[in-house]
Amino acid sequence: MSASYERTKIIRRKYAKYFDKGKPIVDVGFGDGMLMQVMQEQGYTVIGVDRNPRWVERALGRDLRVVEADAMRFLLENEEAFGGIVLSHVIEHIPVERNEALIEAGFRSLTGNGMILIITPNVHTLSGAADFWNDPSHVRAHTLESLRRLLTDGGFEIVELGFDRDTAFRLRKDPLHFPLDLVRLGLGFVCFGWAARFSEIFAVGRKVSPRR
Asked: Which domains does the chain have, with CATH numbers?
């Protein structure tokens, strides 16, 4: 396995504990499929949904179970069918109004006490804020408070919310980058405190009551 995959495995595998192995999980906008693969290796049933045919083809080549479809439509067509939903690096690509609709569709697709996981870039950091806007497909940065409100307004109770400590900033050891990284880390700490050390934030919510 590549070093990149092993690091992703370390970062992602802790999230599996929030889900029930007896119920299928939907990974919305699964991208390279690495999160799905990590969860499948732990015995979870995961279905990936993405409308990008290139990602779907690649995932099928790795024997992952995926569907090429619009996520919103897919969730609404499968009411109370899933035990969990994963939105990993998805919501930052979606305008606010569509995010609210996506959370609503996710709520309806979950069984009672179903879980939702959101992972998104941490912009509580100088380098993170710059890196975020370097991707032209990013349209909305999120904070811990915006994730909280997105989920609670959508009918979920917050199970956990925070900075992913496994994504802590790593100082490069070579003479060229070490001084630069040290300055970036120091400035980030001055501006944002310890939150500047991490590259991702996450929120876990539980479906608690039927929507009206």
From this structure: 3-168+198-207 (3.40.50.150)
